[in-house]
Amino acid sequence: MTNYLLSRSKTPVSKNSQLKETILIVDDSPDNLSILRNVLTEQGYNVRVSLNGRQTLQSVNIMQPDLILLDILMPDMDGYQVCQQLKANPETQAIPIIFISALKETFDKVKAFEIGAADYISKPIETQEVLARIEHQLHILRLQRQLKQENARLSQEIQDRQNTEAKLRISEASLLQAQRIAQIGSWEFDVRTRHVTCSREKYCIFGLDPNSSAITYEDIIQRIHPDDQPLFEETVQDAIASGQPYNIEFRVIRPNGQIRYLEFRGEALLNDQGKVIQLFGISVDMTERKRRQQALRLIVEGTAATTGDTFMSSCARYLAQVLQVRYALIATFANPAGTRVRTLSYWTGENWHENIEYDLKDTPCEDMLLGKACHYPKNLQQLFPKDRILQEINAHSYFGSPLKDSDGNVIGFLAVLDEKPMPLTVEKRMILQIFIARAGVELERLHAEAELQQSEARERQKARELKLTLSELQQTQSQLIQSKKMSSLGQMVAGVAHEINNPATFIAGNIPIAHQYFNDLIKLIKLYQDVCPNHHSEIQACLEGIELEFLQADFPQIIHSMNVGVNRIHQIVTSLRRFSGLDEAELKAVNIHEGIDTTLVLMEHRLRATNIKVIKEYSQIPLLTCYASQLNQVVMMLIENAIDALQTDSKFHNLKLRLVPTITVSTELRQSKTKAGEAGETGEAGEAGEAGGEKIKLRAYPSSIESQGFSSAIPAAPQVVVIRISDNGIGMSEEIQEKIFDPFFTTKPVGSGTGLGLAISHQIIVDKHKGNILCFSVPDQGTEFILEIPL
Predict the structure, then answer these.
(1) What number is the average pLDDT over the span 579-594?
(2) How many beta carbons lie within 10 A of that of residue 432, not counting itself?
(3) Which of 575, 599, 637, 668 would give a disulfide with 757, using CB separation of 3.0 to 4.6 Å?
(4) What is the mean pLDDT of the chain?
(5) What was the pLDDT predicted at 501?
(6) CB burial readout 261-298, b (16+ within 10 A) else e
(7) Residue 690 pLDDT
């Protein structure tokens, strides 16, 4: 549009430093925009500008202004079109729009107002007029906003009041419901008018119709039990006189003759002079509480600390009284199959019936064999027409529950029957559970007592048999120990026979023959000397060189010495046969190294036969007081086991590995660092045997034997002699290590071991010598046994 000058008059600048509303100026003339923006900015308005219609719509969508000054004549989109779009948008239609235009025709103004303009200003314009019109529209906008806020506030207040009234109605209904459930009635008594105001539940407690006429104080007195009326009136008069709270219990008689127990408590309301003008309070129906107290008394009496038949009888009777039923019974099984039962107590409402037996089939009790409780509230005889007893006692309802022992096994049942329908409330079910639990415990005790009495005779007989068996077992144990000894000795004697007896027998058998041959030669020499006294010089020189006369004198002595040696060998063999005998059972101080060496010599034939390398590592050990023969047996058993382990290990047959089966025997003296159930000090970890016959080293002393191996430990002495016997064989798993000291446990093939070797070793070391025997093993790497013997 054509630019124009705005005629201005001097306008005072607003002193309000705070920015007012936001005004958007829309004009395609930058000069007009600048003039209007300066004027409005001076008045404290927040001013935004736009040069065309599309830019205006985008700006309004981003942030809405409080008022728009809109030119009409603009390129692309005129002011009318911009106004129409803004008014068509619900989010922007409330923004007041003032047209500022050079068009002065009435038609233009009417059109502007028709499309929603708030005002129309013709150019040229006066500053005061523009400001007044703008302020007028903004004032209207402010009033609209205030009206909207006030309407919202009033709507919220109305909604809050409605919500409060709804909550009040709900609260009143809840209070009435709570009073009904709790059977609590509220009341007020006007002392001057003697008028009584009661809640609905108060009427119900007294058995009156809540819709009837108002109740009076005299009506209340008439409903109170005659025996309790004096107490009630006295309490009311005292409260009026003293103004103190009150609390009493009394009985009321309803119109139908039913008696109810009430608790009556409240307070007094005083006026400014301290005079009581009103009593208010509550009445609590305590009838059910009284009934529960009575039921609790019966429960306590029925489940009191009685036992046996006395308990069963009282339990059945009190259960029937608490539940107000005719019959109650407790029964247990009469046969092992549990298809027939026998009553232990049978209450019939007036007395106890004699105990009976009957089959469970086709009775209400049959399902309890499955451990389920059964409840038939009515029509019992129609449900079980074959049960003759139900017809005899005219039972119409039934509840039964199995009685279980502490392991959950059904051992009997408890049942109640009645001649009328029997609905079960939660309270009655809880009462039943108390009696069921107590009866189950007592029945289990009775069964245990009967079983105990029956088993006492069996136990006495077993004790006699056990004593005899123990004696036989001790004899058998001695025989087994001796058998194991003989098994070891058999191997030892075989070695002796192979290594000593055969050569000794050969020598002993050829000594007489050699002696005879020598005598024959001497006889030939003498004959030659007699026949040919003149010897050749060479023969004479030879005779002088060999000292024939000395030889003739000395050879018999040599033969004698050989006989003595052979006899000594036979004596050694005899001694070896006594190696593990019982003739050396006494304690004596010995050199353990000599015993170990002797054992190794005896096992030499097995060691050589299997190419096993033996490494000995001895420390300086003083003489050890021990059972030498038995200790030698332990060493021999361990070496035998090591040989067996090495023989069965296939890795030594692999020529590529070049492994040498090795047994290492070492000794040392050290301070004891073990406790019962523990191993010794921590050392090196086990290493597998390698090529060249290197010994395996197993020096593990874990802090807990249970996590590394098995031991049978006795608290060791301050100083112990330690004997280690290790091999680089197949080793053992943890499962086997846990069982190796058990009697008759063996990993050897059937017939090649008794399973007593390590058990006997354990007994010798732990029981006889008060020491420890430890085992450490790693599968496929080897095993080490450690003997700790107190010095």
Answers:
(1) 68
(2) 21
(3) 637
(4) 79
(5) 67
(6) bbebebebeeeeeeebebbebbbbbbbeeeeeeebeeb
(7) 37
Instruction: Tell me how far apart the alpha carbons of residues 430 and 461 are, in angstroms, rounded to a whole number.
Output: 47
Q: How confident is the model at residue 751 (pLDDT cuts 50, 70, 90)?
A: low
Q: Each residue of 458-470: pLDDT tens digit?
A: 888 888 888 878 7
Q: Are 565 and 503 in contact (CB under 8 A)?
A: no
Q: How many CB atoms lie within 10 A of CB 480?
A: 18
Counting every residue, how long is the chain?
791
Judged on CB neighbours under 10 Å (0-12, 13-18, 19+), 153 is exposed
Distance from C-alpha of 33 to C-alpha of 49, rounded to nearest angstrom: 7
pLDDT digits (tens, 9 = 90+) for 71-97: 988 888 899 999 999 999 998 988 999
Share of the chain above pLDDT 90, in %: 12
Paired strand residues for 697 = 687
Nearest to 131 by CA among 8, 241, 273, 257: 8
Which single residue is written with the structure tokens 């039921």?
Answer: 295
Per-residue b or e along 652-680, where b marks 16 or more CB atoms closer than 10 Å to that residue's CB: beeeeeebbbbbbbbbeeeebebeeebbb
Cβ atoms < 10 Å from Cβ of 405: 16
pLDDT in tens, 659-692: 889 999 999 998 876 543 444 433 333 333 333 3
**Residue whose token pair is 């064989």:** 729
Instruction: Name the token pair of 452.
Output: 């105990």
510: Cβ contacts below 8 Å, ≥ 6 apart: none
* H-run or E-run covering 246: strand 246-253
Least confident among 60-64, 192-196, 376-380 = 192-196
Dist CA 772 CA 786 (whole Å): 8
What residues contact residue 66 under an 8 Å CB cut-off, 6+ apart?
21, 22, 23, 95, 96, 138, 141
Q: How far apart are CA 135 and CA 143, in angstroms?
A: 12
Angle at 14 between CA 11 and CA 20, to 5 degrees: 120
- Residue 641, burial from CB neighbour count under 10 angstroms (0-12, 13-18, 19+): buried
For the record, the structure tokens of 15 come out as 């002193």
Please give the backbone phi and psi of residue 591, each rounded to the nearest 5 degrees, phi first. Answer: -90, 110
- Name the β-bridge partners of 67: 23
> What tokens were used for 573?
């063999």
Q: Print burial letters for 5-42: b (CB count within 10 Å at least 16), e (below 16).
A: ebeeeeeeeeeeeeebbebbbbbbbeebbebbbebbee
Q: Which residues are within 8 A (CB) of 361 and not within 5 positions of it... i.e. 6 or more apart?
A: 339
Between the CA atoms of 98, 100, 101 and 104, what dihedral angle is there, to the nearest 10 degrees?
70
Which string of DSSP letters, residue by residue, matches 47-90?
A: EEEESSHHHHHHHHHHS--SEEEE-S--SSS-HHHHHHHHHHST
User: β-strand 46-50 against 22-26: which pairing, if any?
Assistant: parallel
What's the pLDDT score for residue 98? 92
pLDDT at 216 over 50: yes
Instruction: Round to whole Å and give the CA distance between 559 and 379.
Output: 120
**DSSP structure string for 258-296:** -EEEEEEEEEEEE-TTS-EEEEEEEEEE-HHHHHHHHHH
Identify the CA nearest to 633 among candidates 765, 767, 529.
Answer: 765
**DSSP secondary structure, 534-594, as one string:** S--HHHHHHHHHHTHHHHHHHHHHHHHHHHHHHHHHHHHHHHHHTTT-GGG-S-EEE-HHH
Distance, in Å, from the CA atom of 460 to the CA atom of 456, rounded to the nearest integer, reads 6
Six-digit token pair at 267? 């307070």
The greatest distance separating any two alpha carbons of the chain, rounded to the nearest whole angstrom, comes to 193
